[in-house]
Amino acid sequence: MTTIFPEISISTDRLVLRPFEESDVMALTEMMNDELITTWTAVPHPFTREDARRWVTHQAPAERSQGRGIVFAVTEFLTQRLVGIVHLRNTDWRCRNTEVGYVTAPWARGEGYAGESLLAVAQWLFDDQQFERLELRTAADNTASQQVAQKIGCISEGVLRNAWIVRTPTADGGWAQLRTDLIVWSLLPEDLDGDLRHAGGQFADAGGYPRYGV
User: Lower CB density within 10 Å: C or N end of the chain?
Assistant: First the structure.
């Protein structure tokens, strides 16, 4: 039984999804300090250059080499600029299931990049890797991320009550932690009809993020 994803790149009309490189450290540091990413994810804050280097050189490669999933740096095809991250994790190789998390850089929001990259990864998973289920979890108040899930064809399955922690800015410039519910979404091979399989760049991203980096 295969228990590790191949080290590959995936291309769409506008994007290249590839392994992280040392040259991504500066852009990753800037992206991960965005307020919305701090709010909805568990990444360290502030996210330092050393955090970025550790992610690029150790943590992201280990996800694949240790069989837990795979991490893609999402970049623009024309400019090679870092658009975001797509992260497959908690992979169950026997059942052929995995969970996806993603983030999008502030400058890239509203261009449909989240939907385009998630669809590309889903098609690769189902068609080339013979996976049967892709799961996505979104914080209850993260309506933008829920819209992305709906647009790529995900089905809402239920709520995990009090299952996640989000952060909110405080008046003194700090961050407070709040517990929240998680909405569970799934995507199966049959959910990707012909229109969705060729819809890459048509999905507008409002800048939402599912849980990521736990």
Answer: N
Please report, for residues 85, 112, 184, 188, the alpha-carbon distance to residue 155 in angstroms, rounded to integers and kept in the order given.
Answer: 22, 19, 8, 9
* SS3 state of residue 104: strand
DSSP 161: E
Q: Do β-strands 133-139 and 97-104 pair in parallel, antiparallel, or remain unpaired?
A: parallel
Q: What percentage of the chain's residues is helix, strand, coil (to nearest 5)?
A: 35, 30, 35
What mean pLDDT is predicted for residues 2-30?
96
Distance CA 20, CA 55 (A): 9
Whether residue 21 contacts residue 82, with contact meaning beta carbons closer than 8 Å, is answered with no
Residue 208 pLDDT > 80: no
Q: How many residues does the chain have?
A: 214
Please give the Cα distance from 155 to 104 (Å, whole number).
22
pLDDT confidence of residue 197: 56
Is 156:185 a contact under the CB 8 Å cutoff? Answer: yes
Integer angstrom CA distances of residue 63 from 60, 138, 158? 5, 21, 27
| Phi and psi torsions of 208, nearest 5° | -90, 160
Alpha-carbon distance of 73 to 33, in angstroms, equals: 17
Task: Produce one character per residue of 151-175: b if its CB has 16 or more CB atoms within 10 Å, e if not.
Answer: bbbbeeeeeeeebbebbeeeeeeee
